[in-house]
Write a structure and sequence with these properties.
The chain is of the alpha/beta class. It has seven helices and five strands. It folds into two domains: 121 residues, TIM Barrel (Alpha-Beta Barrel), CATH 3.20.20.60; 72 residues, no CATH class. It is elongated, with a radius of gyration of 27 Å. It starts with 7 loop residues before the first helix and ends with a helix. It catalyses: (6R)-5,10-methylene-5,6,7,8-tetrahydrofolate + 3-methyl-2-oxobutanoate + H2O = 2-dehydropantoate + (6S)-5,6,7,8-tetrahydrofolate.
């Protein structure tokens, strides 16, 4: 946030820096019709752009929080117009976030670029989920959007491992011989004899 909203020129400068220093192949920016001039400026410079419409997390305060977009005819039409404007500006793909599935499917059919849904149903061209959400790599009680399906419990498995480690360290079961470096018996014996000759402090 703040790297492209001021002007199309600011957006282009930021995109150039991200491409050069980040060594990425494209940039993604949030916003519909209002961001179309910036997207156009960036794509005219030869930098591929992924658009992002519907719920735009960077602007969530202006949207009244993390709320589904496109639940009314007027709101759905706004998402469509935003998607069309972003496509027209040159975006090669568009993320549709937190949009009713039926609306997202209709918008996907209306566009000639692919859509990537996140909380937008299975009618999009593809899907994305945040890895820490889908793998359950977060503490219990964390808010999850309705669209997040937890495919694993990385947090729970990590806690289980940490607790087992703690118990094994306390009981001295870890590190066992299997996890330590050996020394030949004769060398150890010689070392012990040498230590006995050294006065304790």
């Amino acid at each position: 946030m703040g790297s492209y909203e001021v002007s199309p020129e600011q957006g282009l400068q930021s995109a150039i820096r991200i491409i050069k220093e980040g060594r990425v192949h494209s940039v993604k920016l949030e916003g519909g019709e209002a961001m179309a001039p910036t997207i156009k400026r960036i794509t005219q410079a030869g930098i591929p752009v992924v658009g992002h419409v519907g719920l735009t997390p960077q602007r969530q305060n202006a949207l009244g929080g993390f709320r589904v977009q496109g639940k009314s005819t007027a709101s759905a039409l706004k998402v469509l117009h935003d998607a069309l404007a972003v496509q027209e500006a040159g975006a090669f793909m568009i993320v549709l976030e937190a949009v009713p599935a039926e609306v997202a499917a209709i918008i996907t059919k209306k566009l000639h670029v692919p859509t990537i849904g996140i909380g937008a149903g299975n009618g999009c061209s593809g899907q994305v989920l945040v890895q820490i959400d889908m793998t359950g790599n977060f503490p219990p009680g964390r808010f999850l959007p309705k669209f997040v399906k937890k495919y694993a419990d990385v947090w729970g498995e990590a806690i289980r491992g940490i607790e087992q480690y703690r118990e094994e360290v306390k009981s001295r079961a870890y590190p066992s011989e299997e996890y330590t470096y050996p020394i030949p018996k004769e060398e150890l014996s010689e070392f012990e004899k040498a230590v006995e000759k050294i006065p304790s402090k």
